[in-house]
Inverse folding.
């Protein structure tokens, strides 16, 4: 009998890619969503949809009933450890066998950013619960560049407070395929493993701009800006202060070289190298054009 996998964060970037990666696999897919009216696309793909809110422990038990595996993704924010705790508790109460958790690169109690420190709390909690577990710690998502699509389409430039940082950035599709691999393998195979997932090379944003330019057939330029300028821009877009502070902490860490590394873990799990920035740029070129961004695909 196929196993039922509960996917949290099912409308977001990583879990959407995971659902795609699991399509056709011998697994029953169930999605936890806050707003069922926004989950029509999931039902059409044969995913069973359950309403639940990770902020509200009482809303969770029905979604976890009869589930063998949980893909646990918590949104960024100060309540992330509570969200993870609520999910892990619901999983334990329901007799879930395995939890595969999305953490973050460099998660640790002494990480230089709040997201890394909060994820470390939840990673440690999961490790101690007695269920089988695997933790994925991906590096900076190439898909974060889609936040710059509007500026790139309009001006051929993008501005980040990342100075000359080098980052071993990863395509989200590879994170999703690694998660699918783990979820489809026997639960014992990856139990107790923490996998740090990166792309194939560590890149500066000048190099990223060059690759975007090649894919788009136009010049793209990276314009480094200071923390204050970036903060003002993000606050202007309505990004919550907590997130702006978190992003600034990451930017400072990356600018000091914290993210300048790669691992061979993706290749080890998938038997092929991870996607390169050139692949990301080619496959997402339309998103960086004005036709797409003016239709609502940009920032
Ligand atoms: N960006 C990076 O470079 C990076 C790198 C490594 C790790 N990460 C980690 O990746 C995670 C974010 O993944 P993502 O980018 O795929 O997220 P995302 O696109 O922002 O999506 C977040 C998902 O969580 C759901 N959600 C939000 N609040 C919820 C709640 N209270 N209860 C239930 N569901 C809720 C959202 O559903 P709605 O549709 O209801 O809003 C959405 O499906 C974070 O844990 C972050 O630390 C990010």
């Amino acid at each position: 009998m196929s196993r039922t996998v509960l996917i949290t964060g099912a409308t977001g970037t990583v879990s959407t890619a995971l659902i795609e990666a699991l399509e056709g696999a011998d697994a029953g897919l169930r999605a936890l969503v806050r707003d069922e009216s926004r989950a029509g696309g999931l039902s059409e793909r044969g995913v069973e949809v359950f309403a639940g809110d990770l902020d509200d422990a009482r809303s969770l038990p029905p979604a976890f009933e009869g589930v063998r595996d949980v893909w646990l993704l918590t949104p960024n924010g100060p309540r992330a450890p509570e969200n993870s705790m609520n999910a892990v508790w619901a999983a334990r109460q329901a007799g879930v066998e395995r939890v595969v958790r999305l953490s973050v690169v460099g998660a640790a109690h002494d990480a230089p950013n709040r997201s890394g420190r909060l994820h470390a709390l939840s990673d440690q909690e999961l490790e101690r619960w007695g269920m089988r577990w695997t933790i994925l710690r991906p590096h900076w998502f190439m898909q974060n560049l889609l936040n710059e699509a509007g500026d790139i389409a309009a001006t051929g430039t993008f501005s980040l407070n990342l100075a000359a940082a080098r980052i071993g950035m990863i395509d989200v599709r590879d994170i999703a395929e690694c998660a699918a691999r783990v979820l489809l393998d026997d639960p014992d195979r990856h139990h107790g493993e923490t996998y740090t997932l990166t792309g194939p090379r560590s890149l500066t944003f000048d190099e990223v701009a060059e690759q975007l330019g090649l894919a788009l057939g136009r010049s793209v330029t990276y314009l480094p800006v200071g923390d204050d300028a970036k903060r003002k821009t993000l606050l202007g877009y309505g990004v919550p202060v907590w997130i702006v502070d978190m992003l600034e902490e990451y930017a400072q860490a990356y600018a000091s070289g914290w993210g300048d590394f790669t691992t061979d873990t993706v290749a080890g799990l998938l038997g092929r190298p991870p996607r390169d920035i050139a692949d990301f740029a080619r496959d997402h070129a339309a998103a960086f054009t004005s036709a797409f961004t003016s239709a609502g695909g940009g920032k």
The longest helix spans residues 80-94. The longest strand covers residues 27-33. The chain has a mean pLDDT of 96.
